UniProtKB/TrEMBL annotation:
Protein family (similarity comment): Belongs to the CSC1 (TC 1.A.17) family.
Naturally occurring in which organism (per UniProt): Raphanus sativus
Gene name as annotated: LOC108840100
Coiled-coil regions listed: none
CSC1/OSCA1-like cytosolic domain span: 201-364
Protein name (database record): Calcium permeable stress-gated cation channel 1
Topological category with respect to the lipid bilayer: Multi-pass membrane protein
Domain CSC1/OSCA1-like N-terminal transmembrane: 7-180
Molecular-function annotations in GO: calcium-activated cation channel activity
Pfam families attached to this UniProt entry: PHM7_cyt (PF14703), RSN1_7TM (PF02714), RSN1_TM (PF13967)
Length: 769
């Protein structure tokens, strides 16, 4: 069990690590040759030029102004200067609202920490329960435990203090959550109303188009929307096609082209030797051939395959999926279509808002809609087994990351680990770093599972992955660490308990594991956040690409890898700290200051990264906030149930029942917020859409919306090859004005209210994605 001295050693190590990271960052960011790595956001916006141009050779690569190095922490106040409205214009609403999650943590936990230390710490400290237990029953405890509820004897009336504080913490948390939900809902509506024109504002994704033997998907969509159901508002459509094989070929060509560029640059620098490459596995063995000639031949070969595959995709009806991006003349019409049921059969002609073009995850559009239910069921089962079978290795690693576990596994290390300093390092640092390393590959696994489920946008993939990551953290990082760690054998006993005994078991174990979570917060939340600002991987990859691949300014821009906020990995980590803070606030307030340091440090670091580095892949207008709110509410309810279990073990029979109302009130509050604020995140008000359409028509009466939308949802592999000719506006006007009733191509009795101009050919108002 870690003591205060062990926590002090761990804090010293992590503070020193963070300080070293900041010093290294301060030196690296000042060097001209790293400018594109640490200020990539400004380069991508075209607002910054390379400082390495001109000047002496040394000055182009090294900053010789020593006064700049004296202000190595100057980036912190600079990151806080940009006001929020300007930051929204600069980085988007998603990035700003993501930062507000950290600010929400500070708003919730600063008052809670002050109140807990002012009230609960004296109540817990002024007892001698643990001291008596140590003398009479040889019970092991530390000074940290004296600050927790463990130091209060059974049947004590002091538990009323913890119950009153639990109510106070709940009321304050709910109040802050409600005000934040209201603020962000208003920010979202204002952002949507004021943002520039985007293709997704006019476009709906239609899926599960029913098959027809006489008409193609494009003709079906045109008939359904243009000629029957939305004759006054339909504009155009882009049929979805399966171009996954073509996309793979394009990626392969890009890879071969990069190798060709590398060898050509290498030969240009030294043309005295012929460059050779082996054709075997990883170039380790096999026939030797001329590298440049080999990759020229490979690029030509793949280019021919791409041309052939592109032609097959365009001409083969089997490559056309029963889905289409349908665009309308107004935002109002798109909102009506996206938010209503199109037919009496709820499984056909399914409509949803189209993601913005850069948010579309194109490979999943080729997945048949009917298979999505099966895929998601399989992933639910797979995630269940991944989560619960992961408990075993995590518990095993946790058991080894203790003094007893190390001595048991490797007796020859006993002399080393019994050293006072090494003992403090192991107990105060090793468990946290072991757990963090063990979870390193989890986000990639969860993202692969989300992609298999068939979500069609990057934002929805990240939200699903984040949801599962949160559940995984709750089960494996929180519950498994609470129950296991010091004793691996406790796991089986815990799993075999009846459900009504589990809250009590966890409640008893929670105060005992406070020191472990303190060390984990310092490793992950202090040193880990400080390490994020170094951008080591993008730094190394940029210089590697800049050395071997870059020939033009465009190549240099593509070599930058600014990354993004990473909602699928960052938000679940934040939610773990919300959970720890709310659970330990009435139990062991000692943990709260460490969480406050995390929220404050992370807010500054990520604000700097969002301003200067990150380039967000998409803009969802903070559509993820209902998930954030729901997970904080879940953490609040979990903390209340665990406190009830803990007080039940303390035989606080008179006090504990008063906690029953807390989960009920919290759930009621959640339903209130869900009904009051969530509609702003899932529906687009028709009033807002109409107002925006009216303003746009007044400002740009001659806007060619079809020209703006016709290639917006073309598959990226077709970009540059599609026909850019605009449609004939006169023909369109004539087409809309006609009201002649003529039969369609289909062998049915249904007539269309307008003359079909396609008559056996592909529609001029549609295209292939």
């Amino acid at each position: 069990m870690a003591t205060l001295s062990d926590i002090g050693v761990s804090a010293g190590i992590n503070i020193l690590s963070a300080f070293i990271f900041f010093i290294i960052f301060a030196v690296l960011r000042l060097q001209p040759f790293n400018d594109r790595v640490y200020f990539s956001k400004w380069y991508l916006k075209g607002l910054r030029s390379s400082p390495s141009r001109g000047g002496a050779f040394v000055q182009r690569f090294v900053n010789l102004d020593f006064r700049a190095y004296l202000k190595f922490l100057n980036w912190m106040p600079e990151a806080l200067k940009m006001p929020e409205p300007e930051l929204i214009d600069h980085a988007g609403l998603d990035s700003v609202v993501y930062l507000r999650i950290y600010w929400l943590g500070l708003k919730i936990f600063v008052p809670i920490a002050v109140l807990a230390w002012a009230v609960l710490v004296p109540v817990n400290w002024t007892n001698n329960t643990l001291e008596l237990a140590r003398q009479l029953r040889n019970v092991t405890s530390s000074d940290i435990d004296k600050l927790s509820v463990s130091n209060i004897p059974e049947y004590s009336m002091r538990f009323w203090t913890h119950i009153v504080m639990a109510y106070a913490f709940t009321i304050w948390t709910c109040y802050v959550l409600m005000k934040e939900y209201e603020t962000i809902a208003n920010m979202r509506l204002q952002f949507v109303a004021s943002e520039a024109r985007r293709p997704d504002q006019f476009t709906v994704l239609v899926r599960n188009v029913p098959p027809d033997a006489d008409e193609s998907v494009s003709e079906l969509v045109e008939h359904f929307f243009f000629l029957v159901n939305h004759p006054d508002h339909y504009l155009t459509n882009q049929v979805v096609c399966n171009a996954n094989k073509l996309a793979d070929l394009v990626k392969k060509k890009t890879k071969m082209q990069n190798w060709l560029d590398y060898y050509q640059l290498k030969y240009a620098r030294n043309n005295s030797n012929r460059l050779m490459v082996k054709l075997g596995f990883l170039g380790l063995w096999g026939q030797k051939v001329d590298a440049i000639e080999h990759y020229i031949a490979e690029v030509d070969k793949i280019s021919k395959e791409i041309a052939k595959e592109r032609e097959e995709v365009v001409k083969d009806p089997k490559s056309i999926m029963p889905a289409s991006f349908v665009s309308f003349k107004t935002r109002w019409a798109a909102a009506v279509c996206a938010q209503t049921q199109q037919t009496r059969n709820p499984t056909q002609w399914l409509t949803e808002w189209a993601p913005e073009p850069r948010d579309v995850y194109w490979p999943n559009l080729a997945i048949p809609y009917v298979s999505l239910t099966v895929r998601r069921l399989l992933m639910h089962v797979a995630f269940f087994f991944l989560t619960f079978f992961f408990i075993i290795p995590i518990a095993f690693v946790q058991s080894l990351a203790t003094i007893e576990g190390i001595v048991k596994a490797s007796p020859f290390l006993k002399v080393i680990v019994e050293d006072k300093f090494m003992k403090s390092v192991i107990q105060g640092f090793l468990p946290g770093i072991a757990l963090k390393l063990f979870l390193m590959f989890l986000p990639s696994i969860l993202m692969i599972m989300s992609k298999f489920e068939g979500f069609t946008s990057i934002s929805s993939l990240e939200r699903r992955s984040a949801s599962r990551y949160y559940i995984f953290n709750f089960v494996n990082v929180f519950l498994a660490s609470v129950i296991t760690g010091a004793a691996f054998e406790q796991l089986s006993a815990f799993l075999n308990q009846s459900p009504n005994q589990i809250p009590k078991t966890i409640g008893v174990a929670i105060p005992m594991k406070a020191t472990f979570f303190i060390t984990y917060i310092m490793v992950d939340g202090w040193a880990g956040v400080a390490g994020e600002i170094l951008m080591l991987k993008p730094l190394v990859m940029f210089h590697l690409k800049n050395t071997v691949l870059v020939k033009t300014e465009k190549d240099r821009e593509e070599a930058m890898d600014p990354g993004s906020i990473g909602f699928n990995t960052g938000e679940p980590r934040i939610q773990l700290y919300f959970l720890l803070g709310l659970v330990y606030a009435p139990v062991t307030p000692m943990l709260l200051p460490f969480i406050l340091v995390f929220f404050a440090l992370a807010y500054i670091v990520y604000r700097h990264q969002i301003i200067n580095v990150y380039n967000q892949e998409y803009e969802s207008a903070a559509a993820f906030w209902p998930d954030v709110h729901g997970r904080v509410i879940s953490a609040l309810i979990i903390s209340q149930l665990l406190l009830m279990g803990l007080l039940g073990t303390k035989h606080a029979a008179l006090a504990a029942p008063f906690l029953i109302a807390l989960p009920v009130l919290t759930i009621g509050f959640h339903h209130f917020c869900k009904g009051r604020y969530e509609p702003a995140f899932v529906r687009y008000p028709l009033q807002e859409a109409k107002m925006k359409d009216t303003l746009e028509n007044a400002r740009e009466p001659n806007l060619n919306l079809r020209g703006y939308l016709q290639s917006a949802y073309v598959h990226p592999v077709f970009k540059g090859d599609e026909d850019d000719d605009e449609y004939d506006d006169d023909k369109l006007g004539k087409f809309e004005e006609e009201a002649i009733i003529v039969p369609t191509k289909r062998q049915s009795r249904r007539n269309t209210p307008a003359h079909s101009m396609v008559s056996g050919e592909s529609s001029p108002f549609s295209g292939k994605v």
